[in-house]
Design a protein that fits this description.
The strands form four sheets. Strands 1, 2, 3, 5, 10, 11 and 15 form a seven-stranded mixed beta sheet that branches. A four-stranded antiparallel beta sheet has the order 4-12-6-7. With 246 residues, the chain is mainly beta. It has three helices and 15 strands. It has helices at residues 42-46, 102-115, 196-204; strands at 11-17, 20-26, 38-39, 51-53, 79-89, 120-126, 129-135, 150-151, 154-158, 173-174, 180-182, 188-194, 210-211, 221-222, 225-243. It has one domain.
Length: 246
């Protein structure tokens, strides 16, 4: 493991599968404008020249359900990068009430999760070396939740929209033949950029609405959309509780 970073004297490094992920959130529950969590509206996000990932927040600054990076400026251990996936998440319109608002949400959900990835591109950088520049639609997430939900009052009318790629691992972008070896203490970053059409689409979309189940609780929670940047691979860490003599 040349150039993989120094291990403690007498320690043995072992390879273990470990995903890395970072999430930008879009919700009116976030502070106004651009924050460490994300953006308050789609319009705010569309106004940015680029949307950064992997070097903005860490797991001590936001909830671990959104980011599991331990640092904003470097990797904590050597990492063997095999795959990259980008996931677009928009609330299921069946969770938006009253029912007469569903039509607009279905279109918004479909446009955000299925059409928008065709109109933006993503980059991955290691230090000052750009290792990937590709259309987001080519980097299906390969992970996540899928399913089908029908309106019980109208069984033939689905209210669950499709995602940007079926969540199966082979759909992910893979560095075929040879993974990328990233040394410990190396800065990495991801960048997402929207085309002019993509920006116009974001400006047109309404923000995810209130999550409520009846009028009494209609103002309880604002729903949110997310974009998740996901790295698949292996980290090299010290074998837990075991040492060897070289």
């Amino acid at each position: 493991m040349e150039n993989m970073g120094a291990a403690p004297a007498g320690a043995q490094q072992v390879k273990e599968r470990f995903p890395l992920y970072d999430t930008v959130r879009i919700s009116e529950d976030l502070p106004e404008g651009k924050t460490i969590d994300g953006y308050d509206t789609f319009t705010t996000m569309a106004a940015q020249e680029e949307v950064p990932f992997l070097n903005v927040r860490n797991s001590s600054q936001v909830a671990k359900s959104y980011c599991n990076l331990t640092s904003t400026d470097k990797l904590a251990w050597p990492f063997e990068l095999h795959t990259i996936g980008i996931e677009f998440i928009y609330p299921d319109p069946s969770l938006k009430f009253p029912p007469n608002s569903l039509t607009g949400d279905i279109y918004a959900s479909y446009l955000f999760k299925r059409i928008l990835p065709e109109h933006c591109h993503v980059e991955f950088w290691i230090r000052e070396d750009k290792r990937l520049s590709a259309k987001v639609a080519h980097l299906c997430p390969g992970v996540g939740i899928t399913g089908y939900n029908a309106n019980l009052a109208q069984p033939l009318a689905t209210q669950t929209t499709m995602t940007n790629g079926v969540p199966t691992a082979p759909n992910r972008w893979t560095f075929v033949g040879k993974p990328i070896m990233i040394p410990a203490d190396t800065p990495i970053k991801g960048i997402l950029k929207f085309s002019p059409f993509g920006k116009n689409l974001l400006n047109w979309l309404q923000n995810p609405g209130v999550l409520g189940f009846d009028e009494e609780y209609a103002d309880a929670i604002n729903n949110e959309a997310q974009i998740r940047y996901h790295l698949g691979g292996y980290r090299f860490v010290q074998r837990r509780g075991e040492y060897y003599n070289s």
